[in-house]
Amino acid sequence: MHEQFYHSLYRIRRVEEELARNYPTDKIKSPVHLSIGQEAVSVAVCQALRPEDVVFGTYRGHAMYLAKGGNLKAMVAEMYGKATGCTKGKGGSMHLIDTDAGVMGTSAVVGTTIANAVGCAYAMKLRGSQGVVASFFGDGASEEGVFYESLNFAVLKKLPVLFVCENNGYAIHTHQTLRQGVAKIHERAKSFGMSAELIEDNDCLALHEHVTTAVKALRGGKATGPFFFECRTSRWREHVGPNEDFHLGYRSKQDLQPWVDNDQVVRIAKLLPPAKRAQIEAAVEAEVQEAFAFADASPFPPESELYTDVFHHQVPAPLLKKVA
Amino acid sequence: MHEQFYHSLYRIRRVEEELARNYPTDKIKSPVHLSIGQEAVSVAVCQALRPEDVVFGTYRGHAMYLAKGGNLKAMVAEMYGKATGCTKGKGGSMHLIDTDAGVMGTSAVVGTTIANAVGCAYAMKLRGSQGVVASFFGDGASEEGVFYESLNFAVLKKLPVLFVCENNGYAIHTHQTLRQGVAKIHERAKSFGMSAELIEDNDCLALHEHVTTAVKALRGGKATGPFFFECRTSRWREHVGPNEDFHLGYRSKQDLQPWVDNDQVVRIAKLLPPAKRAQIEAAVEAEVQEAFAFADASPFPPESELYTDVFHHQVPAPLLKKVA
Amino acid sequence: MQETICLDRQSSATHAATAGAATRTLSYVDAVREATDQEMQRDPAVVIFGLDVDDPKCIQGTTKGLLEKYGPERVFGTPLSEDSMTGVAIGAAMAGLRPIHVHIRMDFLMLSMNQLVNVAAKSSYMYGGRVKVPLVVRSMIGKSWGQGAQHSQGLHSFFMHIPGLKVVAPTTPYDAKGCLIEAIRDDNPVMYVEHRILHFQKGPVPTAPYTVAPGKARITAPGKDVTLVGISYMQLECLRAHHYLKERGVTAEVIDPIWLAPLDIDTIVESARKTGHLCVVDNGWTTCGASAEIVAQVIERLQGTPNVRIQRLGFAPVTCPTTPGLESAFYPDARRIAASCYDLVQGRKMGWVPDERDDLKAIEFKGPF
Amino acid sequence: MQETICLDRQSSATHAATAGAATRTLSYVDAVREATDQEMQRDPAVVIFGLDVDDPKCIQGTTKGLLEKYGPERVFGTPLSEDSMTGVAIGAAMAGLRPIHVHIRMDFLMLSMNQLVNVAAKSSYMYGGRVKVPLVVRSMIGKSWGQGAQHSQGLHSFFMHIPGLKVVAPTTPYDAKGCLIEAIRDDNPVMYVEHRILHFQKGPVPTAPYTVAPGKARITAPGKDVTLVGISYMQLECLRAHHYLKERGVTAEVIDPIWLAPLDIDTIVESARKTGHLCVVDNGWTTCGASAEIVAQVIERLQGTPNVRIQRLGFAPVTCPTTPGLESAFYPDARRIAASCYDLVQGRKMGWVPDERDDLKAIEFKGPF
Ligand SMILES: Cc1ncc(C[n+]2csc(CCOP(=O)(O)OP(=O)(O)O)c2C)c(N)n1
Ligand SMILES: Cc1ncc(C[n+]2csc(CCOP(=O)(O)OP(=O)(O)O)c2C)c(N)n1
Ligand SMILES: [Mg+2]
Ligand SMILES: [Mg+2]
After folding, report:
1. What pTM, to 2 d.p., does this model score?
2. Cis (ω within 30 of 0) for the bond into B226?
3. B136 with B108: CB under 8 angstroms?
4. Least CA distance to B181: which residue of chain C?
């Protein structure tokens, strides 16, 4: 299990480091919100999910996309604006999607996918699927009305949803305590009538245990959803873009240091025999290089693509079996 | 004090009974949402307020409007669509306002005035006023995102707001438990970090005590706002219109009976010497008849009024002293 | 007189006939209910929800009996949470359901704009066609009896403005059923616009399911002197105006666009080319409204050819007042439409306003509602 | 070359002159900041808030220094709660403050539609004039560098559609300052529309406070062959098109409406009457957009007089894509505007497209942002 964790964590870290490295070149065609420092949350949750389970996330969605099994080549190609990108170059880095892997979408408007995730869970429950839906969002998203409305509906209908709040303490440059009267998001969630936990220290394995227990209970029918996880974590780079941002003065290197010292990539690495670790890293490096090369070599979409996909082509309305 | 309570309670009850009686005639020109059965909440709160304090409410706002001192003639005339109405016949029964009495507005779109009340409180605090703002809304309104967003901001800025949830158990014909995963609105309010109380039984005097304590603390600077009061109460008539609605089957006469037996108008009446009571009732009857006669006799607005008030006339931007 | 009006609608009757199947007279409300029922029967993926769809009044009767027949998982009322419930509808649609989300007032859609404009309309495109959002949003425009500022707006032009949304505003029971079935089967978000006064309309409706697809506006009354386009409830006033104008020997060709997005401009252009006069009457404000768009498209198409005279009518450029005198001045009505069409045709102010005719009177919508 | 463009704007320069006071060259960003600063100084009732107005990047610099000068009660960042914060702004305005509510993206206003359309726009009217809502809502339209579906919309036509709202979209630093001061002093809700590329514009700005009131559009380049109306950022592309068209001996009269509601249609009508050709280029979609309204009003006013040829240009009728090739096809640009104006003037397709000229190149907006 630690091997899979490390593979996923290291892979995400390396992909984003490569994106950062490439940033100065003009190859990346849309704003990039890196998850570096926050990978543990996505990995811990997605390692507890099956391929048929579904996730929804945000513009800061690289970690979730990759942890859930989103196609790496299609992701990098999308950053490069290429026709081989996961949205053919139309959505860019803020709208990653891979429906084959259960990555149902990411949005640039904060909070929107929380409700979409709940709706997806409603559909899955109606169809009697065993699947669960994980909704990833930030601490800032928890201030939008749609967040509370969605919690209430999910409890009312007992939906198989995992609400995963990636609380990195900031909305852009503004600290949580400057935006929330009481900085206890999980307490608010609890007041809606769901089990809600706070995971303090970005602990990948601890969070994974909590989530696994919840998912088991859901699938076994021993519990109904939703479940809420407030996961304290930390974004190491600037809100958008590849660099550090201590010069802005809204937080200091010292503020960040404890999180860096507690880097989950390093921590899990230590749990592996050196040979195993080297093997994983080599495999990842190869895959990453290949993905960037693929993106580089891919063509841009033809101008005719501008007018496709505004409306979806008509197909007969799906019947239940098709739907399920 | 009981005299003022009874005068206010009895007056509201009688005005609405008269409106109901007049309903079949074509005199009333807009849909009427009666508060009959819920008067106690508005009276208990407004008796604790001063003229310079401000209230915001909903389309079910007759009780609040009158309890806060809104002009009765202007209210009835507004129902009749007359030029002498509180909005010159433009707003109708769902948009009662009397800025002289601190009734700052009522809205037909559920939840909207909650945020407006909080903004008003922000302005008053900024201007160093001693005033407080009471925001009246229903149990259904507590399901709108704007409700939660407004609570958070009020706590964040420590605003002098009293959130008064008139929980009559229903949104139109749908019971609270069919709309809320957990039917504890005050618990949710508490999770935002404010003092929040539940007043179970429509008890006018008990609620008044709670509110008085809160307002005293606010004015004395011994506490900061906001305060939250979930007030269980009950609407005796149909959601909109003058009649009972047991035939619809969403609630029974028995469901309502305990509330009727606990009628606060009757209860407070009993606390008065019969002579005093008779005197109050006579005065109210006279005032009510006069108000309806006034509305009857008043002219409709001229067609030229259609084009006025779309934009407010320019006046120099108020300076602080003007504002305060 | 409702009958008269309905009988006027030749092509709609014909249409019904050509649909072959047995045809009865149904109300608009029953047509909507039947369309929903038949589609829910046909396709288990169809679900319907929204505030009060399952309450005793079941949205003017349009959802009557559905709960009993299809159960609370496919037919349910919601919390007062328009924003998230729209997001829920979108998520459910992405997952393969075909939700019908109902709003008793179009005004309340302002709470859903973020999900409708930023998510529903854009998902197919911004996800490169990887997902679809087969969603129907039903909303009702209110009128009369003191509906006032916040219960009277026709905001369909907002949705026409946004690529990725379809918009339909049926005015007859026949189109109410056919357009709703079409909307439900469409794989894209469709804004289905109703009007509470049209709910009282009666007309011929085939028993069997059928669709009224985008791409064909309907000539509801033939004429040669002026082209009169009536949107939503204003279609009724235009048909009445057609009768008033006969008093002056003017025949107005009345057109019902039915689908506003995509819009069948050809039918309107051809009629305007023929009559030389175009009057578009919208059940909404004119500025940046559907009437502005239709007029602009017609001119773009006909410029160079002999001058077509155009005119727009709609809500007065103010907030809707409640008191009856002001409210009736706020809305265009058959007599004022007829008067200004007469001026348009004559090319100058004629000062003619027809006397009110009882046989053409409007049905009044009476509260409480 | 920005200078060139700015110098082109005769009347704006003149205006500045006539304003008498000392004039410097300022960026649009600094003009907005200065206007806010001067009004906050003049009137203690003016407050400014919105997401991140007090953060290190202070909204592209437009709120720089205000926190230090006026303190956290008059200058503050907010929670991510657009709906309620708009309601808060309205309530504060009713109570006598003059809030400026800032949104870094116009797209996010979709969360504020209920409060803007149903409350802000209607309060003065539905309360019979008993209250006023002196509110300014600043929002920015994004463009380029992968802004994409949800960070690129120009939705100003929504607000033009609603009675009770004013809408302004200044394009020069001069107008940015004058219009913002006017908007702050106005007793009604004003939607103040910025464009992130215009933020980089530089131009003459008087030091003293002054207002640019509604009611006067500005002719930013004189011409006789075609009237070219450019809204928001498209004003820049139109000025560039003006230069390209000279290559063909066509002089375009470029007009900046500045205020979209109320709209000075007279200036546009008079120009169109003179040139006989009207091309409206909007920084938004055309359907039910500002371009539809302007074209419709001009035709209403000029019908009967010799035919005026009209044309609308705007966003492609699709969602905004991120990849550069598709994105540049999504937007009108100077060369395509020039090409289609040339066709319009000639009355047929000429197949001319000017070669790109470096001296007219656009400034590129580069991320990260
Ligand atoms: C509705 C909305 N409001 C504002 C923004 C601008 N914005 C982009 S990211 C962001 C901060 C979000 O913070 P959080 O939810 O904690 O996510 P994080 O970036 O920390 O991962 C804001 C305010 C937006 N994209 N959407
Ligand atoms: C935003 C919005 N959604 C829906 C409605 C339709 N509606 C009118 S009253 C009402 C019920 C409100 O219930 P509650 O808040 O408890 O107030 P009550 O009528 O019980 O006093 C609803 C759903 C509305 N007016 N506004
Ligand atoms: Mg965060
Ligand atoms: Mg209630």
Report:
1. 0.96
2. yes
3. no
4. C79
